[in-house]
Amino acid sequence: MNTADKVENREGGLAAVLSQIARALQAEPDVETTLAAIVKATIDHIDGAEHAGISLVERQGKIRTVAPSSESVVEIDQAQYRTGQGPCVDAISEHEIYRTGDLADEDRWPDFTPAAVRAGARSMLSYRLFVTDTTLGALNIYSTRLFAFSKQTELDGRMFATHAAIALVGAQKEAHLHQAIEHRDTIGMAKGILMQRHDIDHARAFSMLVEASQHSNLKLHDIAAWLVEHRHAI
């Protein structure tokens, strides 16, 4: 078998694995389970991966670690967030892939690398997770071995990170949809309570909820949820 055939067979095998992973991720019931499944699949299928975690970008640019495979992942990530340095931080801000050899000899992040080495990391690989122009966060992969990740591993991981980002955004949209339906139902119940108690129509009941929300500086859904929960006591 020549080199071209070997490459073709390898890429075909990787594509099959990625397809299986993508289907499995889409079947997960919620965001948290999807994140945990992404991390597990990363460790199972990325050469050299010993630990992994996902850094999610939240409101106002805050970053937090989710679904870490070990406590050392949390420790290393916190060092990145604290110093503002590291492969994860740069993958998110610079929209690039970052792969290290020996972290102890790494000079790109002088404030971060000593903490990472103390936590046991010697190699890292970080991918920005994104769809279109929206950055979701970063997929971070760790190893205690020197030069654990090859250029080929980096390329394989990029395809994996793409599937992971698509699965994550799908899970987030599903969660937002369920939340919107839940909020709508709660507000509907609260309006029904007010309509019955005060003999008013649904428009006036909704106005009362809005007024209470504005006066209390609470979200409309929170006001409605409080009313539903305490309907027998008021």
TrEMBL record:
Keywords attached to this entry: Kinase, Transcription, Transcription regulation, Transferase
Gene3D superfamilies: 3.30.450.40, Winged helix-like DNA-binding domain superfamily/Winged helix DNA-binding domain
Pfam families (alphabetical): ANTAR, GAF_2
Ranges for domain ANTAR: 167-228
Gene Ontology molecular functions: kinase activity; RNA binding
Cited InterPro entries: ANTAR, CheY-like_superfamily, GAF, GAF-like_dom_sf, GAF_ANTAR, WH-like_DNA-bd_sf
Name of protein: Antitermination regulator
